[in-house]
């Protein structure tokens, strides 16, 4: 009988120690789980702040894009292309090469034909139809040549503010004085137009040394037209008549 009692006592002691170990293990597991949840919470909090910051940046960028002109992307691409062309020209000049020749060597025959077709379709010269159309073409050609001074424009915006953009109630007469550079630029452009008109004028200068073979201006125009079409066939006959050897 004493032996079984001792065995029971030893069994009860081992189970007690296990019961004491279980609360410590459970507390450690709960603490670890709580720490894991706090870590995930901190990660989610950081991700939320990062997303909020990115959203704010995107809103600011979208607002900037909306305030830009409608064709800003095309202008930006055009400016970037012009910068690349300028850099290519400088590189060719440094190597002593002709830029136009280098550019043509890099263009394929298909691209060249496509560009030529596109150039012919763009703004075709249909000849003179009326004075209004000629004036419109002249206006479009001149406006394409205008290069605005953005620095001066920004200075005027700072100086005048909203008054720079007139309304129906604005008094414009006498409020704007053009700069000397602008006046000089306009005069130079007008002189260039006058020079070009004189160069391509259909009027021909009068030649005092030319033979007078007409009786009035209309007859002179007829003789010039006949000379243009039949002069090479009648040159010998005319020379014989002048020498007096014609049969």
Automatic annotation (TrEMBL):
One of its GO terms (biological process) is mRNA splicing, via spliceosome. Residues 1-34 are annotated as: Disordered. The keyword Nucleus applies. May be part of a spliceosome complex. PANTHER family: GCIP-INTERACTING PROTEIN P29, PRE-MRNA-SPLICING FACTOR SYF2. Belongs to the SYF2 family. GO terms for cellular component: catalytic step 2 spliceosome; post-mRNA release spliceosomal complex; Prp19 complex. InterPro entries: mRNA_splic_SYF2 (IPR013260). Involved in pre-mRNA splicing as component of the spliceosome. It is found in: Nucleus. Keywords: mRNA processing, mRNA splicing, Nucleus, Spliceosome. This is Pre-mRNA-splicing factor SYF2. The lineage of its organism: Eukaryota, Metazoa, Chordata, Craniata, Vertebrata. The keyword Nucleus applies.
